[in-house]
Structure prediction request, 482 residues.
Amino acid sequence: MEIKPKMNLNAETEQNWEPFIGLQIRISLATRTKLFCTCENRSGMLANSLICPHCLGVPATAPKVNREALAKALKLGLALNCKTNKTVVFDRKYTSMEASPKGYQITQLNYPLCYDGYLNLQLNGGLTRISIKTIHLEEDVAELKELPGESFIDFNRSGAPVVVISTRNKISSADAAYLFLNRLMQWVTYLKIANLQDVSRPVRCRATVCLGDTGNDRYIGGKEFPEMVSFHALRRALKAEIQRQRHNITGKIRTLYGDEVPVSAGNETDPANSSQRNATRAETSIAPILISEAFLDKLRSEIPELPEDKEIRLVYRYGINRTQADMISADPLIADYFENLVTYVTPLAAVKWLLGAVFHVMSEQQISISEFPISSRRLGELINHLEQNSITVEAARAVFQQMLEDPRSSTEIIVDKMLYIREDYDKLFAVPQRRYSQNADSDQQGDADEIQSLYLGQVWDLPKKKSDIKSLKALNPKIVKK
Ligand SMILES: [Zn+2]
Prediction:
């Protein structure tokens, strides 16, 4: 339907209106047991094989908070510079979701575990800070499954711990939102709090976007997207929606879509979460838990070097550039691989091979660094052969390709395939050899012997340096002349 705009949008220009994006990300925590019971927290198991009365929602079952989940969610909060509520309490969020037959979900909407944090991003050459509003814990719902001829509810996932990260809706572009999501996943990977490879429990993200004219404190739009799994798709959807809302402003007509939500003030609205408008009440069956400063200190001490710090250290320690350091520190295992590789070769060579050949294979075969078949030690040995000019660049590439399938060391493959540059030396030997045989019957026999021994001596005394081949080529005509 078409409505008349509430405010006078005549003569509006797009420049007055900036996007305000809010995100809410749900990540399943990797814990041994579920959030409130001792059922195993695993995926890929036989349907309804990991259940107990609590996960099934049987009344009067006493939930007990999983300390491991609590610690992992807190660790994320601390790493994202959040403040922490020292008393942990839970709420019941009433829901009519089919996947939650008990009619409610235990969550922390009123007293989130952590709040007021941030994550810095490098965007368009500058630093952008994304404000984290809250981080809270909640139990996952069950899963609706369809098989030929039947549909049923699988409760294996019901009650599994989920950490929910909500940003303030002040993210200013679809690209910043996309970058933040990817950066957040790096933090999660470094902290080892979730199993991001688990396809059955993907990371899910909701987003809202509205346009705001902060100068005049006006906000319009307020589109809420359904939960999405693909960050690429979310970025595309946000860009399209921002464009649509801008067009509506400049077109002086605003079309209100059925799923638009009212936005009162861009800096104060909650990030996308229609469920937050559901009724809640305190979960009285769970006793409040007090978090001690000592427990927080212990968690702080367990936080590893995070991507931001690692990136800076790699730049200063190895003299690589910021973009290279960013790519290497994106995954702690890639960073480990790099730092192992530089114990064998120069940082320059390590970066070149890792970001070139190794990344190419990883992307082509869709594998992670832990599945990459050549260890840093084996690759280091190969690079050393090349750096010392024992083999040509072409030979190194060929050996690298073979090493992907062949568990032997690069030295063994090089010897086996006779790839040493020594062959080039032999080609050069061929010249005096030929002269020698041509002159075999002449009086110059003595001279030829002398030339050859001189040549041999000079060749073998040459140190193995880059200049080897050049030196030989320069040396050769002289000797032949003589
Ligand atoms: Zn259970």
In short: Residues 34, 37, 39, 51-52, 54-55, 159 surround zinc ion (CB under 6 Å). DSSP finds 15 helices and 16 strands in the chain. Residues 8 and 252 are 9 Å apart (CA to CA). Residues 422-481 form one domain.
